[in-house]
């Protein structure tokens, strides 16, 4: 295993669960043998290898077996079947405060955890100042950890795990417990460990982080591997499945006559409608490139936002406007038909107007749509964020921000011309 740090071969893990328990001999005698015993298969036939010095990501929904797999790699659980080979000193951060003794101070717990990892007191002495500085908990380092907040727990635990020169680092999602400043320190340090050749196995629900940090990955679904290989391909497959399930769920809810929560949904207005009311927006629907109504849209793809209306009378030169508002309250864009010299003559009855985008510039996230129907400064109808717009990725998104900046880079770098005044 000189080039392989971790090898998992046909691994399975089964837990025996009981819906009823007998906690005493008296209960066993009076109530008889416990019933409702069944096996829960957390992992089924999982196999993969992690090359030394690489970063491996585990993705999947909650309950898919990711944390169970990490605990087996860390030696917390034993596999029910199959084999796991780990070549190197493992440092693991799995659960908040795992391995800490509440009555010991933070400093004493650093030495305790270091000893558990197989380090001598001299080795820990060389790193203790760096650990304390990274944790950033100040004078609390000499207080019992039982008085620590959850954020202080995770700060100290992460600092111990990553600072004591790990050969193999296993990290669960719990680093998300820290504040924004500490999370940035964690991620920066993970990238530094990766550059230094530490083997990292990571569980994260941030697919952007997984795409940036990991080389390879595996997608688990109810304990079964669904995809294994290059992390970008694994994430793409996972997102396509998530999108397909969401679409199917929405279609099923609509077929059952339930409340629509996607395209075409009009949430109860938070405030009464504004405007004189001769014409009203009735709903907003989303449509893909083929014209089919959809529950969400995808960045970079063709889409149509259709504004449906009902008019009580004939109206001339009516303008339509949209506002796309992020869930944080930021207005991202506000196109209106008047900018394109489009004004519409409206007849009594129902109809719709389309806003078409050949490449949706919005990044994945939750948005709301406000609509306006106006005529030269007069407002017929204004709806404030009554319609939800969901933007879903079908691949790992590595570009930050709310929108995509359209443009192009130069083909190659240029050397500035020197010697000219």
UniProtKB/TrEMBL annotation:
What is the name of this protein? ABC transporter ATP-binding protein
Keyword Mitochondrion listed? no
Output the lineage of the source organism.
Bacteria, Bacillati, Actinomycetota, Actinomycetes, Micrococcales
Q: What PROSITE patterns does this protein's entry cite?
A: ABC_TRANSPORTER_2
Q: Return the SUPFAM superfamilies for the record.
A: P-loop containing nucleoside triphosphate hydrolases
- Cited Pfam families: ABC_tran, Wzt_C
Q: Which family does it belong to?
A: Belongs to the ABC transporter superfamily.
Q: Where is the ABC transporter domain?
A: 6-247
* Species of the source: Occultella gossypii
InterPro entries under this entry?
A: AAA+_ATPase (IPR003593), ABC_transporter-like_ATP-bd (IPR003439), ABC_transpr_TagH-like (IPR015860), Bact_Polysacc_Export_ATP-bd (IPR050683), P-loop_NTPase (IPR027417), Wzt_C (IPR029439)
Supply the alphabetized keyword list.
ATP-binding, Nucleotide-binding, Transport
GO MF term set: ATP binding
């Amino acid at each position: 295993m000189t080039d392989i740090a971790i090898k998992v071969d046909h691994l399975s893990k089964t837990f025996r669960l009981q819906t009823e328990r007998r906690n005493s001999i008296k209960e066993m005698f009076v109530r008889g043998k416990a019933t409702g015993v069944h096996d829960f298969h957390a992992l089924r036939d999982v196999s993969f290898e992690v090359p030394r010095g690489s970063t491996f990501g585990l993705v999947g929904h909650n309950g898919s077996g990711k944390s169970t797999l990490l605990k087996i790699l860390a030696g917390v659980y034993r596999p029910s079947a199959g084999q796991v080979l780990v070549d190197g000193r493992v440092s693991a951060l799995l659960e908040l405060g795992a391995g800490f003794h509440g009555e010991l101070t933070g400093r004493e717990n650093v030495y305790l955890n270091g000893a558990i990892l197989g380090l001598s007191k001299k080795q820990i002495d060389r790193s203790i100042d760096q650990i304390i500085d990274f944790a950033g908990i100040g004078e609390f380092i000499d207080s019992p950890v039982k008085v620590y907040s959850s954020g202080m727990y995770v700060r100290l635990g992460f600092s111990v795990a990553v600072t004591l020169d790990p050969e193999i680092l296993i990290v669960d999602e719990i680093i998300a417990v820290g504040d924004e400043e500490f999370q940035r320190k964690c991620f920066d340090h993970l990238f530094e460990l990766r550059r230094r050749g530490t083997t990292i196995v990571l569980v994260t629900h941030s697919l952007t982080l997984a795409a940036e940090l990991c080389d390879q990955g595996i997608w688990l679904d109810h304990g079964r591997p669904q995809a294994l290989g290059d992390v970008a391909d694994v994430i793409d497959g996972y997102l396509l499945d998530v999108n397909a399930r969401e679409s199917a769920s929405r279609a099923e809810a609509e077929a059952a006559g339930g409340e629509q929560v996607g395209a075409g949904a009009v949430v109860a207005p938070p405030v009464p409608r504004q405007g004189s009311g001769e014409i009203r927006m009735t709903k907003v629907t989303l449509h893909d490139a083929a014209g089919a109504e959809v529950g969400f849209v995808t960045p970079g793809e063709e889409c149509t936002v259709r504004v449906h209306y009902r008019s009580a009378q004939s109206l001339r030169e009516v303008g339509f406007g949209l506002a796309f508002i992020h869930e944080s309250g930021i207005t991202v864009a506000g196109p209106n038909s008047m900018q394109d010299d489009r004004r519409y003559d409206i007849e009594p009855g129902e109809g719709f107007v389309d806003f078409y985008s050949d490449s949706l510039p919005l990044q994945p996230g939750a948005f709301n749509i406000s609509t306006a129907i106006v005529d030269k400064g007069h407002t017929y109808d204004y709806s404030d964020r009554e319609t939800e717009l969901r933007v879903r990725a079908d691949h790992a998104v590595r570009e930050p921000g709310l929108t995509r900046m359209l443009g192009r880079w130069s083909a190659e770098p240029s050397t500035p011309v020197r010697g000219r005044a």
